[in-house]
Amino acid sequence: MVMCHRFYMRQSHAKNDWQTIATASLFLACKAEDEPCQLSSVVVASYEIIYEWDPSASIRIHQTECYHEFKEIILAGESLLLSTSAFHLDIELPYRPLAAALNRLNAWPDLATAAWNFVHDWIRTTLCLQYKPHVIATATVHLAATFQNAKVGSRRDWWLEFGVTTKLLKEVIQEMCTLIEVDRRRNMPPPPPPPRRELTWAIPAAVKPVHMARAYPFHSYPLQSYRQAGIW
Predict the structure, then answer these.
(1) Tell me: the pLDDT tens digits for 16-75?
(2) Residues in domain Cyclin N-terminal (predicted)?
(3) Are 125 and 172 in contact (CB under 8 A)?
């Protein structure tokens, strides 16, 4: 996911199919994390997911022509990912500094679970491109402690021990709260439609016509005075 975000920070969404880039990112991440996955498995699984609406997709991808065509698309996406990132594949995630911080602070299991789940959510955003992993980990522990109403550390400004200033901590937490609020609004059910109201129409009473006093009736204005040369 971080590779995807990093790619689209420099490349166009409109010109690069996100499904191809997502598949290539997964395949490349397996190599970078020393957990290689066979290209054939990635190609077949990705094709079946992309075309899950088509019942014949699982049969079509096993045909030689279709398989090789889609495989070349994924390999082209991988090459584009590598060239865009300048072959820089060393991506440090917040999980390791988070585990170190939780162990150092002797955090409760509920607090650790909440912080871990928060990091899962941050990976889906561009937060990992904006701040360093230890900053995200420290701010996540502080945010999880706030939600759990738990005390963390032996000193009030414990985050200074992890190389995070108070100003930076507030900035990152503000970003995290904004992301949480955006996600909450996105997942809110739509409001119910307003109740229908029966309209009753009152029949107006008969109105007596009122005759306005005019110097001339509408059909007999003295137009002769306007019919002069140069006007008509």
Answers:
(1) 999 999 999 999 999 988 888 899 999 999 999 999 999 999 999 999 999 999 999 999
(2) 2-52
(3) no
Which distant-in-sequence residues (6+ apart) come within 8 Å of 189 by Cβ? none
User: Residue 96 corresponds to which tokens in the numbers above?
Assistant: 């390791």
Amino acid at 29: A
Place of tokens 């598949």: 23
Question: What does the alpha-carbon distance between residue 177 and residue 167 come to, in Å, rounded to a whole number?
Answer: 16
Distance CA 26, CA 4 (A): 9
Residue owning tokens 């000193």: 155
Amino acid letter, residue 13: H
The pLDDT tens digits for 90-101 are 889 999 999 999
| Predicted pLDDT at 191 | 76
Contact, 27 vs 39, CB < 8 A? yes
For helices 133-148 and 166-186, what crossing angle results, to 10°? 70
First vs last C-alpha separation in the chain: 79
User: How many Cβ atoms from other residues are within 10 Å of residue 190's Cβ?
Assistant: 5
Label residue 152 exposed, middle or buried (CB < 10 Å: 0-12, 13-18, 19+).
Answer: buried
CA atoms within 13 A on the CB side of 223: 8
The number of residues in the chain equals 232
pTM of the model: 0.74
Q: How far apart are CA 27 and CA 37, in angstroms?
A: 7
Residue 149 and residue 152: Cα distance in Å, rounded? 10
Q: Check residue 203 and give its pLDDT.
A: 54
